[in-house]
Amino acid sequence: MKQLLRLTHPIHLVSGVTIWGIWFVAIYAGLSVACSVAPPDPERDMLTGINIGVGLATLFTTLLLSGLTWASVAAGRRAEPRRERFFAYASAGIFLFSAGGTLFVGYPIIFLPPCL
Amino acid sequence: MSDTKDATLTPEVRRLHKGMAEVWANPRGLGALTVVNHTSVGLRFMVTGAIFFLIGGLLAMLIRTQLAFPDNDFMSHETYNQVFTMHGTVMMFLFAIPILEGLAIYMIPKMIGARDLVCPRLSAFGYFCYLFGGIILVSSLLFEMAPASGWFMYTPLSSGDYAPGRGSDFWLLGITFVEISALSAGVELVVSILRTRTEGMPLHKMPLFAWYILAMALMIVVGFPPLILGSILLELERATGMPFFDVAGGGDPVLWAHLFWLFGHPEVYIIFLPGAGIVSTLIPVFARRPIVGYGWVVAAIVIMGFVSFGLWVHHMFTLGIPQLALAFFSAASMLVAIPTGIQIFVWLSTLWLGRPVMSLPMLWIIGFLVIFVLGGLTGVMLALVPFNWQVHDTHFVVAHMHYVLVGGMLFPLIAGLYYWLPLVSGRMPSARLGKWSFWLIFLGFNLTFLIMHWTGLLGMRRRVFTYDTAMGWDIYNLISSVGGFMMSAGVALLILDVALHFRFGKKASQNPWNADGLEWAMSKPPTPYNFVSLPRLDTRHPLWDDPELPRTITEGRHGLSTIDHGRRETWGSDALTGKLREVVHLPTNSWWPFFAALALAMVCVCLLIRIYPLAAVATLVAVVLLLRWSWENGAHPRAAPDSTVSPGQPPLHSRTMNGPGVWTMSVTHLANGSLFLSLLFGWFYLWTVAPEWQMPETSPLSPSMLVGAGVSLTLGSAWLARLVRRLRRDNDAGLGGGMYLAAGLGALQTVLLAAVIWQAELAPTETAHDATLLVALLYVLIHALLGGLLCLLQGLRVGYGFVGVHAPLEPVVVLRFWYYHLVVYWVLFVAIWAMPTILGGGT
After folding, report:
1. Candidate from A24, A54, A94 with C-beta closest to B310
2. What stretches pass through the bilayer (chain B) (predicted)?
């Protein structure tokens, strides 16, 4: 189990995109439920609780994934067997993509109201 | 040349080959139905898929004939609806997925140095499910009862009110049956790739094709269950009136769209990834250098596999979803261009840095690059919401889809066909016929579908059966039709080339393309056992690094080269490092897969003609057959009664506690979990979104009986875990009695759940709420019943001496099943009882 937490383990090939997937499902489901249960006044612009909530989740996830990218690169540098280095660097690339993807998918909250 | 007749081999080695040939022999005649070997089953999948491709192609030509001229009365609109629905259905479900699975089933063991897949009987079962399901579905055309609601069967168009005949039922039941096949292949490909690679082949050095198939198989396992659930719900609605998709009853037709596209969008990548795998295999061979950026490709595969699940709503941009949600999916749709771009640049870089040689397979690869890049570009256009609204449901979308699917799948598939044909037949195809075929298909395809972009931009809707000449679409449609027939001529030449090459093709050399892959180390055509000895490999390019490998393998100089025990065997290795862990003994030819699939086909037909008592009997027969099949496992005399292995070899897998069976059960539960999550999604979706959702003030379910069932499940799981812990300590005292006790707890849970359903007095045909509750309760009831039955069988097997300290694997597998059920049961309890009780019901 402890081994799974090391960033040189191949499980981290999928952990970055899994975090991205959980965030993506959470913001889409959260948006849908919030718009269904408590939609903000249609006259209001982007400064709604929903956009702020999605924005905070986006920022947190981006930072988490960015940190994991950096940590994976560091783990790759330290890794001795070639196999471990391979998985650490490949995972770093996927973490980086996931961080960028989170920011790219989440940034429309800046210019779109939530429930229209 | 058959290895047994190779005059250069010593008599001892020839005896070894003869022994292998006897143990791995495929019966002929009626006995051919018992064959489970991956080479035969893979070929069957591919040949059957090719036949369905011809049927789908014929339907396409009927469509193009109808659309060639304005106001054409070649077909009525009713017939046209059936033809385009069946064209899409046949191509997607009966051709694309099965033929790629067939290729994977055929190639993967050969590439990773295994003798067979890890569950050969499951492969054979999957094939028969596919064959019978395909026949049932296609027979609807002969009865003039084919589905007519389009290949994605949107409700309410496919519901009872608007599609009252049997057409939709043929689709729903036939496709669900075929998907059993896809899932079974998906599960065993995952486990085979992870656990049966040859000695020393670590994960990061396995062939790229295996990475692609691993991703494809996992995507099938996770991606298909939403559609299976949707099909079950829609069939229940059509057959019994449960209103899952009916607004008046508290359902919502948009739920179907979600469930369909949760499957449907990943499906496109499930089809593309093996195609890309072929490209990543062939380009280095013909560029004569290793691929540039192996790690980049692995990362791109993983990203593509995941991101493809986050795009499903881009098929639903016109359904009235909030703009912000549209923006999320629009952005996610653009993201997928990144892993695609990585792969395209890797392929181009490999060609740029290599010394490419032009050959017939490469011609198809170049065709792929051109067509797929164009399809990808229109894909990015369609990801933009305003443009998507503009061209939604027009021929532009049809053109885009064909560029992606034909470019991304058919062209690489034909490249792979020409590349691996010498392996299958031992002969080379004709370069001249092959080039003619390529140019006819390539030009015909572009003539058909490039023009179709413009037809779409001019406003021609998809699925209209004719048009007025005043619309100005005449010439474009005529050109598309001419192109379509040109493409058909190319396909005819392709078939001719393949057929003729078996008789007239030049004999292929040992490694005709100077390839690096292990598959070229075997005899041509391959023997059923693939390799008489299994080499230790620590390289991505076995044949480039050791050109003598074919000879040394044939001479039996590598591992697992004994056959006097009479078992079919392959290595079981560590998923990560490739170190040896077990000798996996594989089942031999068997009738069970055929008869089990036949019984399920009976279930399907009985449901179709709505003779439900007979369907129940057929289901019972199918279950009995499947359980009887499971009886012949582990230490059973027909499996491996003798556990002796050669000195220095690891133990037989059934004599360990972490054999591939444990992995198979875990991967199966990924599929099962995906189905469960889809059900949960449906529950919450209807609860929060359906406009007429009706939930009672208090839950109709008895909390005491629900908790009682949960407690018996929890106790049973804990008890089983204790038995397994004792087995780990080499103690099997009381194992049989313990299994019977767990079976009793399973039975108690079944009875309590049945009582919950009985006492709740649900009205499933009145409200979607009650209908969903009933399906959810039946889901856990079936698991409770099956959990009890498995423990009962384990108790019997302990009595027969098939399970115990000497063969401890099976209780571990059964425990996994109970653990899965334990988790989903309590999650469901929270979702269907605790949350409604806490949050309150009401409408």
Report:
1. A24
2. 43-63, 83-106, 127-150, 170-196, 208-234, 268-287, 294-313, 325-348, 360-389, 401-421, 433-455, 475-500, 591-609, 662-686, 706-725, 737-760, 772-796, 817-839
Contacting residues of B for A114, CB less than 8 Å apart: 322, 324
Q: How many CB atoms lie within 10 A of CB B499?
A: 10
pTM for the whole structure: 0.95
Of A18, A97, A116, the CB nearest to B322: A116
For residue A4, the chain B residues in CB contact (below 8 A) are none
| Nearest-by-Cβ selection for B302 from A14, A24, A105 | A14
* CA A107 vs CA A54, A56, B311, B380, B385: distances in Å: 10, 11, 17, 18, 16
By the 10 Å C-beta count (0-12 exposed, 13-18 middle, 19+ buried), B840 is classed as exposed
> Which domain, by its residues, includes A76?
2-110
Classify B730 as helix, strand or coil: coil
**Which residues, other chains included, contact B718 with Cβ-Cβ below 8 Å and sequence gap of 6+?**
none
Please provide the DSSP assignment of B782-820 as one string: HHHHHHHHHHHHHHHHHHHTSSBTTB-HHHHHHHHHHHH
Cis peptide before B27 (omega within 30 of 0): no
Q: Where in chain B is the domain with CATH 1.20.120.80?
A: 694-843
Overall number of domains in chain A? 1
Residue of B nearest to A83 (CA): B204
Q: Among partner residues A21, A36, A105, which is closest to B331 by beta-carbon distance?
A: A105
What are the beta bridge partners of residue B584? B570
Q: At residue B647, does pLDDT exceed 90?
A: no
Please give the Cα distance from B668 to B105 (Å, whole number). Answer: 18
**H or E element: which one contains B59?**
helix B38-67
Residue B516, both tokens: 């690096």
B238 vs B169: CA distance, rounded Å: 8
CB atoms B296 and A93 under 8 Å = yes
Please determine, for the modelled complex, whether the ipTM score is greater than 0.90.
Answer: yes
List, for residues B736-788, the tens digit of each pLDDT value.
Answer: 999 999 999 999 999 999 999 999 999 999 999 999 999 999 999 999 999 99
- Interchain proximity B298–A104, CB inside 8 Å: no
Task: Retrieve residue B638's tokens.
Answer: 């027909």
Chain B nearest CA to A23, separation (Å):
11
- Neighbouring C-beta atoms of residue B80, cutoff 10 Å: 21
In a domain, A115, yes or no: no
CB contact B500 to A (< 8 Å): no
Q: How far apart are CA B301 and CA B275, in angstroms?
A: 12
Residues in chain A with CB shorter than 8 Å from the CB of B335 are: 101, 104-105
Q: Does B307 touch chain A (CB under 8 A)?
A: yes
Contacts of B298 in chain A (CB under 8 A): 13, 90
CA-to-CA distance for A94 and B297, rounded, in angstroms?
Answer: 11
Q: Look at chain A and count its residues.
A: 116
Task: Quote the CA–CA distance of B35 and B124 in Å, as a whole number.
Answer: 7
Which A residues 22-51 touch B at CB under 8 Å? 24, 27-28, 31-33, 35-37, 51
Q: Does B689 touch chain A (CB under 8 A)?
A: yes
Q: Distance (Å, rounded) from C-alpha B742 to C-alpha B745?
A: 5
Q: Which residues from B are below 8 Å from A104, CB to CB?
A: 331, 334-335
Secondary-structure class of domain B694-843 per CATH = mainly alpha
Q: Give per-residue pLDDT as tens, B43-92.
A: 999 999 999 999 999 999 999 999 999 999 999 999 999 999 999 999 99
Interface probe with B: pick from A12, A13, A65, A102, most Cβ of B within 10 Å: A13
Is-contact B575 B203, C-beta < 8 A? yes
Chain A residues with CB-CB distance to B197 below 8 A: none
Residue A116, domain member (yes or no): no
Report if residue A51 sits inside a domain.
Answer: yes
Bridge partners of residue B804, in order along the sequence: B807
* Tokens describing residue B414: 């034909």
